[in-house]
Amino acid sequence: MPSDLKNIVVFCASSSGSDAAFVDAARDLGSAIAARGSTLIYGGGNVGLMGTVADATLAGGGRVVGIIPHGLEKREVAHRGVTELVVVNSMHERKKQMAERADAFVALPGGYGTMEEIMEVITWAQLGIHRCPCAFLNVAGYYDAFFTFLDHACASGLLKPQYREMILVENEIEKLFDSMAAYESPVQDQWIELPES
Known about the structure:
Layout: E1 7-11, H1 20-35, E2 39-42, H2 48-59, E3 63-69, H3 70-73, E4 84-88, H4 91-101, E5 104-107, H5 112-126, E6 134-137, H6 144-155, H7 161-164, E7 167-170, H8 173-182
Parallel strand pairs: 1-2, 1-5, 2-3, 3-4, 5-6, 6-7
Helix pairs in contact: 1-2
């Protein structure tokens, strides 16, 4: 695996969802991150898909960095077994630290929080704040309706096709890593700086 994909940020749900395929995918992704000698960076929780991907990475001998705001430390049951647990003051600081450490971003199935997190880093990629790949592991077609919406946004003239194409989508983990390794940002200029926490 290329050295520039050593730190993989994973956004995902703090619940397990209704489809066992979500848990299986989180486990397989964690195992794959460990097998590649990469570090998992995630939201620091010990429950749901967050806990599953962290536990699988640890079980495979991988390094796990959890970053969690102190307000969610108890609510999301902070994972005390990770390699490094970083407790921060706010959601903004959490996301900033995750972005600063990242070589790639991956979204597993999730709700509002997952969508907000992955869309923010995609927006930052569009603005040239970073040039990391932003990818969805589209487990059991979970994100199909969302991609249909993005295509509608392009057809409506509100999303440029080159920015739609920045988003990597795979339903197999090996293909996901191949796509991320081959990714080249189409954005040459940085419009603004990374927001302060």
